[in-house]
Design goal:
Number of strands: 8
Number of domains: 1
Strand content: 35-45%
Order of helices and strands: HEEEEEEEE
Largest sheet: 5 strands, antiparallel
Structural class: alpha+beta
CATH superfamily: Carboxypeptidase-like, regulatory domain
Shape: elongated
Oligomer: single chain
CATH topology: Immunoglobulin-like
């Protein structure tokens, strides 16, 4: 009889410990699949722009559309001679992700953009507007 009571109490203790751990730390939210997006950054004449930083920031908004929290800007990459840069985002975060394109020399306007859904093309073309004449 003592063994049965002892095992019952051990089982209850283990269950209680797991319950407390779950309540404190929870499970990770399902962020979805990590998606690879390729951007090509060009000017109005369709010339590739190198040295453009691509940063992303994730936002959370309430039911009224008011901003409740956001992550900091995360550098995804910098374009090379061909103007190509890659980003990795979770598919469930896509409507809440802001993509920022800013060139290091400040010759082009900074572009902040979002996508309602994931891009379906292999490469998304981004056109930046020039602000400084060389």
């Amino acid at each position: 009889m003592k063994k049965i009571v002892r095992r019952f109490l051990q089982g209850c203790s283990l269950t209680a410990a797991m319950f407390v751990f779950q309540a404190c730390y929870g499970t990770e939210p399902d962020m979805g699949e990590l998606v690879h997006i390729t951007f090509q950054v060009v000017d109005k004449d369709n010339n590739a722009i190198d040295g453009v930083c691509l940063k992303t920031m994730w936002e959370t908004r309430n039911s009224n559309g008011d901003l409740t929290s956001h992550s900091g800007w995360a550098l995804q990459g910098i374009t090379e001679d061909n103007g190509v840069v890659h980003a990795h985002v979770y598919d469930k975060e896509c409507p809440f992700t802001i993509f920022q394109f800013a060139d290091e020399q400040s010759h082009f306007e900074i572009l902040d953009t979002t996508f309602v859904s994931l891009p379906t093309t292999d490469t998304v073309k981004i056109t930046l507007k020039k602000i400084v004449n060389e």
